[in-house]
Amino acid sequence: xxxxxxxxxxxxxxxxxxxxxxxxxxxxxxxxxxxxxxxxxxxxxxxxxxxxxxxxxxxxxxxxxxxxxxxxxxxxxxxxxxxxxxxxxxxxxxxxxxxxxxxxxxxxxxxxxxxxxxxxxxxxxxxxxxxxxxxxxxxxxxxxxxxxxxxxxxxxxxxxxxxxxxxxxxxxxxxxxxxxxxxxxxxxxxxxxxxxxxxxx
Length: 201
Description:
By secondary structure, the chain is of the alpha/beta class. The chain has one domain (6-175): Aconitase, domain 4 (Alpha-Beta Barrel). The two termini are 35 Å apart. A hairpin with a 4-residue loop joins strand 5 (140-144) and strand 6. It has a seven-stranded mixed beta sheet. It is built from eight helices and seven strands; from the N terminus they run E-H-H-E-H-E-H-E-H-E-E-E-H-H-H.
């Protein structure tokens, strides 16, 4: 998993309530178990016409948002089914951070497991960041995970909370598999001891 420390990137405003996982990655694209390639179908129904052409009014089809790394979204982001393909699609597109006032629990947890930082802010803070992201002249935000701050273009910083264990996992780039592999020497020692003490197993 890619480490997350400090990110400066274009923030895309998605001022919609209840963006669910089917909107993020529709069901017809869930046939794969690969984490790559799903970014092409991110927000498919919102992003593309029936003939596959871009919908010109959708934010990620406009400049400078085609290269967005941050989303500023409405309440209850990631609701709906528990598909892990949703954070896979966001990450494959290039999104490393989602900012909202609230998230669905399973989506929130899946973000951390895949190297995406979900940040919960107040409604007032979200509105200010949404306005920043809507400024096409300078829609960049800086996310500093170590300091737990969001730096706005006007120089004002917003602090956010994050679970210490999840924060450290992102800083170190450790998903569940990486955490397990850190215990590899202890696991090997246990297996060797068990083979010696209980050879019948």
